[in-house]
Specification:
By secondary structure, this protein is of the alpha/beta class. It is 36% helix and 21% strand. A hairpin with a 3-residue loop joins strand 14 and strand 15.
């Protein structure tokens, strides 16, 4: 690491708000998500010293567990987790002492009354913050929230919050219905709709990169940008999620939330102030500026596909139809690509190409901003046709920012070649950063909604995405593609019609 880098890495104190004493109620507290991800992450926060001395975690679920049995399950999950390394037994035992379990069925009122008594006891008559985390299938959200609303569980006041993981409904109608249920018990400023992508450092850095660097922001418009591409690719299949995927599909699972949220950050106007309300206001404006696509025109501006069986990374893999809990004749898309337009002053005429899919060649999530070519070609590019300058924001698997530009080849008269200027978080910062999930949980506990989705943003995203979901599910015409390809052939033809190509190959 250079001296200049060391100088900039002075002792920077955390500017995160202090987490006050709390009770954290986990609905589905003994389920797979809780044991595999949520509880190990909370333990990691405890290990780092980010949790207060006084906190309580209550698991609620239909397993008839004692506190001791529940703690044993959680201990096993922590020891098996990749999130926390190999902590000392005493640290685990200290964390487990804050855990208890309340047996109950989600539909039975009397079990919520028992839970309320336990919460009252653990919170010292509600003198600390009380948070509810829905670690349950989304089909149970309304049932549980309705029971909370009808019970004596605390829901009033700033310290009472509810955390809901995506999906927030399966279309606009169900999203509105879910929100009506939520509003029976909680105000909007108490609701934390969690999308893990928004907790990733590179996603957060989009705003800082744009608005803190004057070299780029003046170019961030249709005068200088030719097009934008957003890719969310996975090389895995649906694995054990077949039942979920048959009801959801790739458009609901990735496009409607992750991709539109990243698009909003790329395209938003500068907020008047850097706070949760102003940032989310600007993101919603982008959603509302997306050019609507009529149901009958969806096939003209998008492509869908489904992976077949074959070889990937030297192994034979199943087709989607052969996956567990998938209909052998399913037509559900596992790949989706579309051309979008934002009809406002900044982005008029600039196409936004998005694509996402499973069983693609590699796992990568990135945004590619392709700048316009110079108006006159002055230089030779004999070695390789010179592409326009482009900026690449890579979100995963590694977090980095790259800038492709042309330079003169040594000892040539006017030969130009492309080179990359790369910035990697891991190369520059020698600190260990928390996971996106941990960052979002910390914000939930401090009441910071900046990285969470607001209801009007959810509605705007569903209103835009609904025609795509409906048309592709109705037409049952997704094109098959072999594993290890960048989607179906139709996706290549789709972008070539505009004289462009996908940046990630």
């Amino acid at each position: 690491m250079s001296e200049g880098q060391q100088l900039q890495q002075c002792d920077i104190s955390s500017d995160f708000a202090h987490i006050t004493d709390f009770v954290f109620v986990i609905f589905g507290g003994a389920g797979d998500l809780s044991l595999r991800k949520l509880l190990p992450t909370l333990f990691s926060m405890h290990l780092r010293g980010n949790l207060p001395d006084n906190f309580e975690i209550i698991g609620f679920g239909r397993q008839n567990l004692t506190d001791e049995t529940y703690r044993k399950l959680v201990k096993e999950s922590i020891e098996a987790s990749d999130e926390v390394g190999t902590p000392e037994t005493q640290h685990i035992e200290d964390f487990l002492s804050h855990l208890s379990f309340s047996y109950g069925h989600f539909e039975q009122e009397e079990h919520y009354n028992q839970l309320e008594q336990l919460v009252r006891e653990k919170s010292n008559e509600y003198k600390v913050d009380v948070l509810y985390y829905l670690s349950i299938p989304s089909t149970l959200y309304q049932q549980v929230i309705s029971q909370i609303a009808d019970s004596e569980l605390p829901t009033a006041g700033e310290g009472s919050r509810i955390i809901i993981e995506k999906p927030f409904g399966k279309n606009l109608a169900t999203a509105l219905e879910l929100n009506r249920t939520v509003n029976r018990a909680f105000r909007e400023d108490q609701v934390f709709r969690m999308d893990h992508y928004l907790g990733k450092e590179t996603v957060q850095n989009i705003i800082f990169f744009r608005f803190a660097n004057s070299v780029f922001e003046p170019l961030w418009n249709s005068n200088f940008i030719d097009s934008v591409q957003i890719t969310v690719a996975e090389d895995i299949g649906v694995s054990r999620r077949g039942r979920f995927y048959e009801k959801t599909g790739v458009i609901r699972d990735i496009f409607q939330n992750h991709m539109l949220q990243v698009l909003a950050l790329i395209a938003m106007e500068p907020p008047a102030e850097f706070n949760s309300k102003q940032v989310r206001d600007e993101k919603v404006k982008v959603m509302r500026s997306l050019r609507p696509t009529a149901y009958q025109n969806v096939g003209d501006v998008s492509v869908a596909g489904q992976y077949s069986g074959g070889e990937l990374h030297g192994e034979q893999v199943k087709s989607y139809r052969e996956e567990v809990n998938v209909d052998p004749e399913s037509t559900m898309p596992t790949y989706f690509a579309a051309k979008l337009h934002i009809d406002n002053w900044r982005w008029a005429g600039v196409p936004f190409y998005v694509r996402t899919g499973k069983r693609l060649p590699r796992r990568v999530t990135e945004v590619v901003i392709r700048f316009r070519q110079p108006p006159l070609k002055l230089f030779r590019d004999d070695c390789k046709p010179l592409d326009a300058s482009r900026l690449v924001l890579t979100i995963q698997p590694e977090e980095k920012i790259s800038f492709l530009l042309g330079v003169k080849y040594p000892e040539s008269s006017n030969l130009i070649v492309p080179v990359n200027m790369d910035f990697k978080y891991s190369d520059y910062f020698d600190r260990t950063y928390v996971s996106a999930y941990e960052r979002l949980l910390r914000d939930c506990l401090t009441g910071d909604q900046s990285l969470f989705v607001r209801q009007d943003g959810v509605e705007a995203a569903w209103e835009f995405a609904d025609p795509f979901v409906s048309w592709w599910e109705d037409c049952e015409c997704a094109e098959f593609y072999p594993p290890g390809n960048w989607g179906p052939q139709g996706a290549e033809d789709f972008i070539k019609r505009d004289g462009r190509s996908w940046a990630t190959e």
